[in-house]
């Protein structure tokens, strides 16, 4: 099992086995290079730990533990966890500021203790086979378990084709689960018990409108973000930074640059497609902060050539190709000898940066006066980077964005248009699959899991919760994050997801985050001295990559015909052969331009690749791993 995820930790491997339990570890050595080997035992030998990730405040925690008489044998953050667990048991996670997933074997109590970080940066999966609990950072490790069989969970597929990701603890694999973000789990002879130790929260709507001094809030934000970046620069290896050319990664890189000995190394993705390329802004920012900059270019056919590898890494179907360029980017970082990179992920969720937040504001504005002919024109302002949208009439815009379709009291109001547009791709499901899912509603299940206090929050905070609690860990931090970077042994670090910063931002008035139609207002105010005006004042342009057009044309890959053939579609049984054939031909004719068909094509293709890589007999899965 450890060998099957060696890409996550290519530096060394270790195993601990006792009569009741076993731990394996593939190490990416970042802190305590010479003495941080795992699995690590406590001084007494009663505890053993396998740990993936980093505890960024381990220096402060170690000093506090030493002051209480604790003695350390290593310089690693792993040993800090063992001491904290000895003193506090499961409550030890409350003191940790980090991105982590770990398991501690507690021999005296004959139990295994598991924990996952608050925002879901690091993964932890588990399954039961033959009365034994197995766990790992990636599902492919279970392929080494005798009698484990990989099978696609059809409910999870429906969730992906509606919400972009399965609803945790469900995964793409039947009978395989993930520990949810901000949760701990204890396994002993009595079974499994899970509970949250941290939850994202917001003030009641009325309280969230309380006035607050903006200048003071900006100063406090700047202080928190600087410290979050500072502690994420801690490593015994060089720390680099991703630089997309957008606001968030530019802020992180600007803060990190003075902290980097010998200058900051920055890395970017560029595209041949002008619609997707941001190299002009990347180069401007790299010059402004004096970083040593490198970029990987994504040209025609590049996404298609690596897409099977990408799906083997994501371990789930996806409906966008966006993970593929990030897979290439992490390969570049590894080739340059860097193991750790900072990224700007999380800022859009924490400070309301996504278009969906502005779009929801405009939809609510339109729904209050449904007869207005002028209000739908506001949708054009949201998407200046989509030229086709600028030509549409007000009536088309209102219909496209679902103005008037949803009740203002609907808890999923903010996300209904996205869900409808994505779920339209389910028209390609096979008759058998549609029959099995006839009574299932992924959106209804999501709504049923919302906390009771959700209804009391401001509408912006409701939308932020949906993004932060579900899409962020389910897709952004996994399929586009951990899986793409760790496929090449690269650790991503996320200053904007420091829980102190998340908690601070959640209590800011909505108008400080989304001021009119200006996203991330308070973040811009707090960091405006760090960036060139062209970047600091730039409107959010979401990271995207070419979708169906990546797979057709002169560079069409031979594997595509196999994966999308009528025989392969019929064999998997998930999709309708006739409609998939028509969609594939439409793509080959370069006639697919809309979101639905692009999402459907990528979703079908990635599901077929998933089926080829993982489903079937154990020996097939082992070869794929």
Automatic annotation (TrEMBL):
Pathway named in the protein's UniProt entry: Amino-acid biosynthesis; L-asparagine biosynthesis; L-asparagine from L-aspartate (L-Gln route): step 1/1
GO molecular function, one term: asparagine synthase (glutamine-hydrolyzing) activity
Domain Glutamine amidotransferase type-2: 1-190
Reactions the enzyme catalyzes: L-aspartate + L-glutamine + ATP + H2O = L-asparagine + L-glutamate + AMP + diphosphate + H(+)
EC number(s) per entry: 6.3.5.4
Listed PANTHER family: ASPARAGINE SYNTHETASE, ASPARAGINE SYNTHETASE (GLUTAMINE-HYDROLYZING)
Name recorded for this polypeptide: asparagine synthase (glutamine-hydrolyzing)
Organism, scientific name: Aminobacter aminovorans
Top-level taxonomy: Bacteria, Pseudomonadati, Pseudomonadota, Alphaproteobacteria, Hyphomicrobiales
């Amino acid at each position: 099992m450890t060998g099957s995820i060696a890409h996550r930790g290519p530096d060394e491997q270790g195993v601990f086995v006792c009569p009741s339990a076993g731990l394996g570890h593939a190490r990416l050595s970042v802190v305590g290079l010479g003495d941080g080997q795992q699995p690590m035992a406590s001084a007494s030998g009663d505890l053993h730990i396998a740990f993936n990730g980093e505890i960024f405040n381990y220096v402060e925690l170690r000093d506090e533990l030493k002051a209480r008489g604790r003695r350390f044998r290593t310089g690693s953050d792993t040993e800090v966890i063992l001491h904290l667990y000895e003193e506090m048991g499961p409550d030890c996670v409350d003191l940790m500021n980090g991105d982590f997933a770990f398991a501690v074997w507690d021999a005296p109590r004959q139990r295994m203790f598991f924990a996952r970080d608050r925002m879901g940066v690091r993964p932890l999966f588990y399954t039961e086979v033959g009365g034994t609990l197995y766990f790992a950072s990636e599902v492919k490790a279970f392929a080494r378990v005798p009698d484990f069989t990989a099978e696609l969970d059809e409910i999870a597929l429906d969730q992906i084709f509606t919400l972009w990701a399965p609803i945790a603890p469900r995964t793409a694999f039947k009978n395989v689960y993930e520990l949810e973000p901000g949760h701990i789990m204890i396994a002993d002879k009595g079974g499994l018990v899970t509970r949250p130790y941290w939850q994202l929260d917001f003030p009641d709507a009325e309280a969230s409108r309380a006035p607050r001094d903006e200048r003071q809030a900006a100063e406090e934000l700047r202080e928190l973000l600087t410290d979050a970046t500072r502690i994420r620069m801690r490593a015994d290896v060089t720390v680099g930074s991703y630089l997309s050319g957008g606001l968030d990664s530019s802020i992180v890189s600007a803060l990190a640059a003075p902290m980097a000995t010998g200058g900051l190394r920055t890395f970017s993705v560029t595209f041949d497609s002008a619609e997707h390329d941001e190299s002009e802004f990347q180069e401007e920012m790299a010059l402004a902060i004096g970083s040593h900059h490198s970029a990987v270019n994504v040209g025609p056919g590049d996404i298609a050539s690596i897409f099977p590898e990408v799906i083997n890494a994501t371990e789930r179907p996806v409906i966008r190709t966006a993970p593929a360029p990030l897979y290439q980017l992490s390969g570049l970082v590894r080739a340059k000898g860097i193991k750790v990179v900072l990224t700007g992920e999380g800022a859009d969720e924490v400070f309301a940066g996504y278009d969906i937040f502005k779009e929801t504001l405009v939809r609510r504005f339109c729904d209050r006066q449904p007869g207005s002919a002028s209000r739908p024109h506001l949708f054009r302002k949201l998407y200046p980077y989509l030229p086709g949208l600028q030509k549409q009439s007000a009536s088309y815009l209102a219909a496209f964005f679902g103005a008037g379709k949803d009740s203002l009291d609907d808890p999923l109001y903010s996300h209904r248009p996205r869900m409808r547009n994505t779920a339209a791709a389910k028209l390609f499901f096979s008759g058998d699959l549609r029959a099995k899912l006839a009574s299932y509603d992924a959106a209804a299940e999501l709504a049923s899991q919302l906390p009771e206090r959700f209804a009391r929050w401001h509408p912006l905070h409701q939308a932020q919760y949906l993004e932060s609690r579900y899409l962020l860990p389910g897709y952004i931090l996994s399929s586009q994050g951990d899986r793409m970077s760790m496929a090449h042994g690269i650790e991503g670090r996320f200053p904007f997801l420091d829980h102190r910063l998340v908690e601070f931002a959640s209590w800011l008035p909505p108008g400080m985050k989304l001021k009119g139609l200006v996203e991330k207002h308070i973040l811009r105010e707090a960091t405006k001295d760090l960036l060139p005006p062209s970047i600091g004042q730039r409107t959010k342009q979401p990271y995207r990559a070419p979708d169906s057009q990546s797979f057709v044309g002169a560079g069409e890959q031979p594997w595509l015909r196999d994966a999308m053939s009528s025989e392969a579609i019929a064999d998997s049984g998930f999709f309708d052969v006739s409609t998939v054939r028509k969609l594939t031909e439409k793509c080959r004719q370069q006639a697919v331009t809309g979101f639905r068909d692009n999402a459907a094509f990528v979703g079908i293709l990635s599901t077929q690749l998933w089926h080829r890589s993982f489903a079937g007999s154990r020996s097939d899965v082992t070869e794929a791993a």
